[in-house]
Amino acid sequence: MNPYEPYKFKNGVIMRNHFALAPMTTYSSNDDLTLSDEEENYYHLRSKNIGMVITAAAAVSKNAQAFDHQISVRDERYYDSMKRLRKAIKSGGALSVLQIHHGGRMNVPNMYPNQDIVAPSAVKADREYTITPRALKTSEVYDTIDDFVNASKLAMKAGFDGVEIHGANTYLLQQFFSPHSNQRDDEFGGNLQKRMFFAKKIVEGILQAKEELNKPNFIVGYRFSPEELENPGITINDTLQFVDVLADYPIDYLHVSLGKFNQTPIRDEKDREPLATKLLRMIDGRLPLMGVGGISTKEDVEAASELGYDLLSVGMVALADPDVVLKFQLDERPNNVFTHKTLPEPLYTRLHRYGSRLVGYHFEEE
Ligand SMILES: Cc1cc2nc3c(=O)[nH]c(=O)nc-3n(C[C@H](O)[C@H](O)[C@H](O)COP(=O)(O)O)c2cc1C
After folding, report:
1. 248: containing domain
2. pLDDT values of the chain reduced to their tens digit, one per residue, 366 residues
3. Is residue 288 part of a domain?
4. Whose alpha carbon is nearest atom 1 of ligand 1?
5. Residue 23 CA to ligand 1 centre (angstroms)
6. Cα(85)–Cα(71) distance, rounded to whole angstroms?
7. How far is the CA of 313 from the centre of ligand 1 (A)?
8. Domains in the chain: how many in total?
C-alpha cells in the first residue's frame, strides 16, 4: 500500500491518507472534565494533514475516570465539550474518532471523594500505585456496557466520524479478557469465550445504536493489546482467537497496541515472527489492521507498510511534530523537540516521566 494515498473503508468513508494520530491522554481537561482550550489547540494543530485523529481516552462513566483531568463523555453535560472536540479535529479535515474508555482496576486512587474503583474481580493489578478493586455485580456489568453504548450515541449526535473502543493497555475491557483480572463465575467469566463476552456486548450494543440512530457510516474501531506478562495472562493464542471473533463483526478497523510496530512475542522469546504477521494472517483481509509503535521516520513508515499493516498511527513523534505526516511525505525529518507552544502544559510536564520512550526527543528547555 502507498500510505500517502487515500484509504476507503468498507462503509465507503474515505480517509485522506493511511495515518492516524494515536490516542494520547493529555491530563489537561478543565476541572469539570470538559475539553480545555489547550486541548482544543492540541487537536486543531494535529488535524491538518493526518487522515484520522483518535482522541485521548475519554471516560464513559464516573468510575471510568482513570487519570487526573481526563475528559469525560459520560452524559449530556459533556455534549458541548464533545462538539468542540469534534470541531477542533474537523477544522483540519481529519476524520474524528473518539476513544471510549474505562480504567477499571488501573484507576489512580484518591482522585476524587468517594471514588469507587471497580473491576471484573477483586484482584489487584501488579502495579505499585493500584489498590484492590471492588468486583462489579452482574447488573453493574450490564450498566457499564450501557455506558459505552451511551457515550457512542452521544458521539454520533455530536457529529464524530466514529469511536474506538479502548480494549488495550490493561484497562477494563482487557481486564475482562484476562485470566489474571477476571475470575468471575457468571456469564462474563470462565473460559476464553466467556471472557470475550463483555467486549462482544459492547461491540454489539454500539452496532445496534448505529442502526437506531441511522448512522451506517459511523466508524467503529477496536484497540487491543496482544499479550500480557502476568501469569496467568493473555497469550497471543488467546488474542488470535479473539481477533478471529472481532473480525467477523461489521466493524471498521482493529488497532493493535504495541511499543514497537514490528515487535515479536514477549511471552515466548524464541518466537521471532512479528505479532503483526500473526494477526494479519488470522484477520485475512476481513478488516484493516492499524499498527503503531515507534513509527518516527519515513523508513519506519516503509517498513511498517511492508509488514502488511493497512493503517498506521503515530504517537510520540506527533507530540513533537504536529505536521509529521507532511514531513514524512516531503522526506524531511520531523521535529524532535517538545514545545510549550504545541502541547498542553500538564502533558508537557507529564512527558518527562516517559523514560526510555523519550530517547531521540528533547524538551524545549534542554
Ligand atoms: C502521552 C501518552 C498518552 C497516551 N494515552 C493513550 C490513550 O489515552 N489511549 C491509548 O489507547 N493509548 C495511549 N497511549 C499509547 C499510544 O496511543 C501509542 O500506542 C504509543 O505511544 C506507541 O506509539 P508511539 O511510539 O508512536 O508513541 C499514550 C501514549 C503517550 C505517549
Report:
1. 7-363
2. 899 999 999 999 999 999 999 999 999 999 999 999 999 999 999 999 999 999 999 999 999 999 999 999 999 999 999 999 999 999 999 999 999 999 999 999 999 999 999 999 999 999 999 999 999 999 999 999 999 999 999 999 999 999 999 999 999 999 999 999 999 999 999 999 999 999 999 999 999 999 999 999 999 999 999 999 999 999 999 999 999 999 999 999 999 999 999 999 999 999 999 999 999 999 999 999 999 999 999 999 999 999 999 999 999 999 999 999 999 999 999 999 999 999 999 999 999 999 889 999 999 988
3. yes
4. 24
5. 6
6. 10
7. 10
8. 1
Q: The domain spanning residue 268 has which CATH number? A: 3.20.20.70
pTM: 0.99
Counting other chains too, the contacts that 183-186 makes at CB distance below 8 Å and 24 or more residues apart are 183/120, 183/121, 183/123, 184/120, 184/121, 184/135, 186/138, 186/141
2 part of a folded domain? no
Does residue 346 line the site of ligand 1, with CB under 6 A? no
Is 1 inside a domain boundary? Answer: no
Q: Please tell me if the CB atom of residue 166 comes closer than 6 angstroms to any atom of ligand 1.
A: yes
